[in-house]
Amino acid sequence: MIKHRLIAGLALLTIAVGLGGCAKTSAENTSNNWGTIVKEAKKEGTVKSVGMPNTWGNWGGTWNDLKSEYHIFHSDTDMSSAQELQKFKSEGKSKDAPDIGDIGINVAPSAVNQNLLAKYKTKYWNQIPSWAKDKQGYWAAGYTGSIVFITDTKNVKASDAPTSWKQLASGKYKVAVGDVATEAQAQYSVLAAAYANGGSESNLTPGLDYFAKLQKEKRLSTVDTTIQNLQKGEIQVAVMWDFNAMNYAHQINSKRYKITVPSDGTVRSGYAEVVNKYAAHPYAARLARSYILSDKGQINLAEGYARPIRTSVKLPESAKKKLLPDSAFDKVYHVKNNDTWNKETLKLGQSWQDKVLGVK
Fold first, then answer.
1. Distance between CA atoms of 180 and 169, rounded to whole angstroms?
2. What value does the mean pLDDT take over residues 124-141?
């Protein structure tokens, strides 16, 4: 799936888009009055998303709800975070401009700097933690993921499944993390290893050194961390988002895989649902963003293995079973400065090539 890919094109997009002011648009001038939003969204009757396919985080549940409750029809083009921002830019004010997207919060500062988003806080703003939102209201995470290990017990004994970064380092199995140059999931895996070994978003050296050791021992797998490769048995241990690990395991055979949270540190981050500044259907975009943060929208996400950002939402048992229990998380880190992390991710692909893959 391309949803978790960032692609290096984000760096080019940063250069290509000017930081100067733009003319006011329909999305910027849209009323934030809820009654007006509902009334006008129904008139628009359509919401077009990018990077929000039905199968990712159970977005399909929310799109079906919008259709049944508000008579708003939905269409999506699946793409990476960077591609979403490029699409916002390239379509401009055209009638084909997408309305809403779902981007990793590590790239959200780029979207703000490039003047691509419209502000809209929704009535749930105060229930979203400060690390997961932009102070001005340009973006806010709807759900989170945490980095975990998934072990295929057909390849590795369940008793040998790692429960910490320290154990992972001393194992005999190969470890797959995906493409650090292009995948947000892989980049957060490096960040989690850095945190667990004394680093941070501004000091990734401990994380790079950690994986360089695995590379030197010929334990770093080049296999991509996809559900297909897991099913074929080509992965021994992988590092990935908990919502991907849970989803993949349940789709294949949950008894075959052991999912563990590194006790010496994981990183938790999120994906933000953002309204395009030039949205062709600005009211429908606002209604969708608000619905995603509502109790029903948050439950939909949990049913798709994604942890809701609003911790006050009471989840039904069916949704709770799709999430790892809170007790599984001993030490959770959050990025303290998304601007710093955003800049580091743009350099991380080259650093990985030089300091990890280049190790002999």
1. 19
2. 95
pTM: 0.84
Which regions of the chain carry the CATH code 3.40.190.10? 9-144+269-326, 146-268+327-353
Q: Whose CA is closest to 236, among 339, 316, 162?
A: 162
CATH class of 9-144+269-326: alpha beta
The amino acid occupying position 133 is K
Closest CA to 40 of 288, 280, 281: 281
d(CA 114, CA 304): 31
| DSSP calls for 205-229 | HHHHHHHHHHHHTT-EE-S---HHH
Q: Which residue carries 């049913």 as its tokens?
A: 303
pLDDT, tens digit (0-9, with 9 covering 90-100), for 166-199: 999 999 999 999 999 878 899 999 999 999 999 9
Nearest Cα to Cα of residue 105 among 340, 293, 288:
340
If we measure between CA atoms, which residue out of 52, 28, 10 comes closest to residue 115? 28
The CATH number given to 146-268+327-353 is 3.40.190.10
Question: Looking at the predicted structure, is the pLDDT value of residue 28 above 70?
Answer: no
What gap in Å lies between CA 16 and CA 35, rounded to an integer? 38
Tell me the C-alpha distance between 15 and 5, whole Å: 20
pLDDT of residue 12: 43
